[in-house]
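Chapter summary example.
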Amino acid sequence: MPASPRPSPPFPAPDSAVLALIVANAINSVTSGEATIEQAILHAAVHGWYEGHIEGEDARPGCDFRGPIQARP
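The structure predicted for these 73 residues follows.
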């Protein structure tokens, strides 16, 4: 079966320098005691998705939706 192309982001490229920084920060926050594993995973997932979304905007001109505006308490 032929390999199918990867879908467009919202995921960052595996070799992304920003993704490497997000992962390194997650690891460092756990090893330093600043965050639990769950907190570090959540932080990395959110920031990884966001960075992938930014890449998606570059890959698909006109894609400028950044999510619904949320009221702050």
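To summarize the output: The chain has two helices and no strands.
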